[in-house]
Write a structure and sequence with these properties.
Blueprint (H helix, E strand, L loop, with lengths): L2 E2 L9 E7 L3 H12 L4 E4 L11 E4 L3 E4 L8 H9 L2 H4 L2 E3 L3 E5 L2 E5 L3 H11 L4 H13 L10 H8 L4 H15 L7 H14 L2 E3 L2 H16 L2 E3 L4 E7 L2 E7 L2 E10 L3 H9 L6 H8 L6 E9 L7 H4 L2 E5 L6 H5 L5 E7 L11 E8 L2 H4 L3 H19 L6 H4 E7 L1 H8 L13 H11 L3 E3 L9 H28 L2
Parallel strand pairs: 1-10, 2-3, 2-13, 3-10, 7-15, 13-19
Antiparallel strand pairs: 4-5, 6-9, 7-8, 11-12, 12-13, 14-17, 14-18, 15-16, 16-17
The structure holds flavin-adenine dinucleotide (FAD).
Length: 481
Amino acid sequence: MLESSFMTSLIKDEYDIIVIGSGLAGMTAANVLARSKHRVLLLEKHYKLGGMATWFHRKGGHVFDISLHGFPVGMIKSCRRYWNTKIADRIVVLPRIKFDNPQFSITTTFNRDDFTRLLVTQFQIPEDRVKEFFDTARSMSHLDNAAMTAKELFDRFFPGREDVVRLLMEPITYANGSTLEDPALTYGIVFSNFMSKGVYTFQGGTDLLVRLMREELIASGVDIVVSADVQKINTGGGRVRNVVVNGREIRTKAVLSNANLKGTIFSLVGKEHFSSDFIDEADAVRLNNSSTQVYIAIKPGETLDEEVCGDLLFSSTAPAFRTDMLLSRNITSRTYSFYYPKTRPDANRYYVVASTNANYSDWANLSKTDYEQSKRDLIDDTLGALQKYVPNIREIVEYTEAATPMTFEHYTGHWGGSSFGTKFEGLAVSRKLPQQIAGLYHAGSVGIIMSGWLGAVNYGVIVANDIDAWMLEEKRKRLGS
Ligand SMILES: Cc1cc2nc3c(=O)[nH]c(=O)nc-3n(C[C@H](O)[C@H](O)[C@H](O)COP(=O)(O)OP(=O)(O)OC[C@H]3O[C@@H](n4cnc5c(N)ncnc54)[C@H](O)[C@@H]3O)c2cc1C
């Protein structure tokens, strides 16, 4: 086992599996495979592990989380089983989820019981209709027919009720980028995951989570190299042969790419190595949207009111829920994550991270001057909007910074700065890779269901198990039994 930034001499010449990328899917797969006694090398182009599950420090002792806003309870079980109890035991519920928009203002624990109560008492929906809706959403599986859209699902159960659609859909759009036009099942699976017990977070912050994961990877025997930008996956005779990283070739039997699906196919391998039908299918995969974020640090000694702000606040001034409005540069909807001292009990600090969904194209073509000005405008507009909940925010703020789709693209290499990988059709393409090239696998944000912290961890496990089974079969063939 070794851990280093790129130190050529310490890396072995050959591994059983090379994992490219240390997002939650990549790290989880590496851990599962190393526990099964495979020789695993984990290569990460950034100087730290985590991918989108990341954080950054700023002067004044500030630490900001990027994607620690909330995930379903299933993360506890997955972390206990595929990581360790130290990690699982730090996953705690977020008690106050708030919505505030022109159609309604509510506080909820964001689970089935509380949503049923709200839908029946506040939205006046018959209880049996609510029950049928929840049961239908819960029975959806990724093997289902994907023809019905989320809009059609809502029209079936709540025709003409834009307010109900907003309550049910808006948080999921933020959680995984899915829209009313996406398949209903991509909505149903994620919604049901949250509804089982509410929204959870990791106490201690993303930095602690990734530190604990790194320790576990090392204990499992994974060789980890950061600042290791993989340029090429070389294939020959229909199978994976080696990867090229910082100019050096490392032989391997299998590669699991946690990099962007399209980047894996078109840049790391090259389209000439796949069948033309497959390339047509991969070409047609749509990327998911990107995000902007504004990070706000509160002066030491100042506080935020937990009762008023809640833990997660879905705030909008738009008259109704519409996907194009959520993505528009003219921002009407923001999700605020409020971080209290309970997030990092050692540091008595308060932070706000305001997130919006965003189109890459709105940011990609700006001049440097316009880009910097747009970031300043984004920060200023966000502080203005936040005044509704924290009236003295401009006086108590100590530090602000903005991230755009360009930021996410820069740090993770995701095409289009995509926050949640690809749309639904990406899942089938990701699964078909090993049929195209033996030993070539992909795990990471695809298909909405496999995105987000829980989706990424679980997809990492699924693909690690595929690789394990394939390696066993290869061994059996080699031994002629
Ligand atoms: C702003 C924002 C907010 C979010 N909020 C939430 C949330 O509240 N809850 C939730 O569940 N999810 C959230 N997500 C989504 C979640 O963070 C991601 O779905 C998940 O972390 C993705 O994990 P992944 O395994 O797909 O890999 P990624 O995180 O995409 O990581 C891929 C890794 O591969 C590396 N890589 C790429 N190319 C190469 C190469 N050539 N060589 C070496 N390394 C390479 C990258 O550097 C990166 O580290 C959010 C995402 C964003 C952007």
